[in-house]
Amino acid sequence: MLKGVLHIHSTYSDGDFTLAELRDLFVRAGCRFACVTDHADAFDAEKIAAYERECAERSDAHFQFVPGLEYSCVNRMHILGYGSTKLSASTDPQQVIAHIAAAGAIAVVAHPRDDAFGAIEAFEEVPHGIETWNTKYDGRYAPRPGTFALLARIRARAPGTLAFYGQDLHWRKQHRGLFVLGGAAKPDRAAVLGALGRGAYVGVKDGLELPSSGELPSELVAHFGRVHERSQRLRSWIRRTKMWADGLGIALPGAMKAQLRRIL
Known about the structure:
The structure is a single chain. This protein has 2 domains: 2-215, TIM Barrel (Alpha-Beta Barrel); 219-263. It has helices at residues 19-28, 45-57, 93-102, 117-121, 145-157, 189-198, 218-247, 254-263; strands spanning 2-8, 33-39, 64-72, 78-82, 106-110, 129-134, 162-166, 179-182, 201-205, 208-211. It is α/β, with parallel strands linked by helices. The chain has a 10-stranded mixed beta sheet with strand order 7-6-5-4-3-2-1-8-9-10, with helices on both faces. The longest helix is centred in the last third of the chain and has 30 residues, at 218-247.
C-alpha cells in the first residue's frame, strides 16, 4: 500500500508551500502521492494549465501529484474535487458534485459544518465521500463523532459513500500527522484515484488506522468525543485570548502564532 496525503494547498491559492516544497516535505514523510486541492476561485484557464503542468513536471515514478480543486459553494460549503481541474460555473453543491463526477474525479464534502448536516444528508446528488477528519478544522487530536454519524446516515441509503481523511494543509507550522494508506499499485493519477474511489485505503495517524467505511468501534467514537471536546475548549480559550489581545492592541508574536497552529 502506498502512503499519501489528501487535501493540501499550495501557493497557487492560499497555501504557504510551493509545489516543489510540498514534494520535498511529503517525500521525506514517506509519501508516494499527494492530492493537492487548491481553491478553484484562485484560478482562470491559463493558471489552471500552469498548475496542471507543474504538478506533472514534479511527478515521477516515485512520487505523484494528483491536481484537484476545492470548490466554494453557497452557505459556506466546500466540495473537494480530487482529480478535478475543470472550473465550475455553479456554486450549488449538488451541481458541483455532479460536475466533479462527470470529470471522472472524486467529490468529497470538505469539513462539513454541524449546521449543514441536514442539508448534506438530504442531497439527491450524493458525493463520493465526506471528510470525516480534517485536522485543520477539527484539530489534530480527534475528529467530531457527529461527522461519522452523518456519514452512517448517508450510507444507509448510499452504501458506497466513503470516509475521507484530510490535512487541509495551508501553513508551514500546521500539524501534518494525518495520512492515508492506499491500495494503488503505483503512484499515478489513475491508480490513486481508482483506489480512493473504491475505498481501498485507510486513514492513519499515530498508529491508528481508520477505515474508508467510517465504521468505528463505539469505544473509539466515545474516546474521540471526549478528546475532541477537551481540544475544542482549548481552542475556544485561545480564540478568546486572541480577541482580548486584539482588543487591547496587543499583537501576538509570530512565533507564538506558529506554535499555536502546530498545537491545534
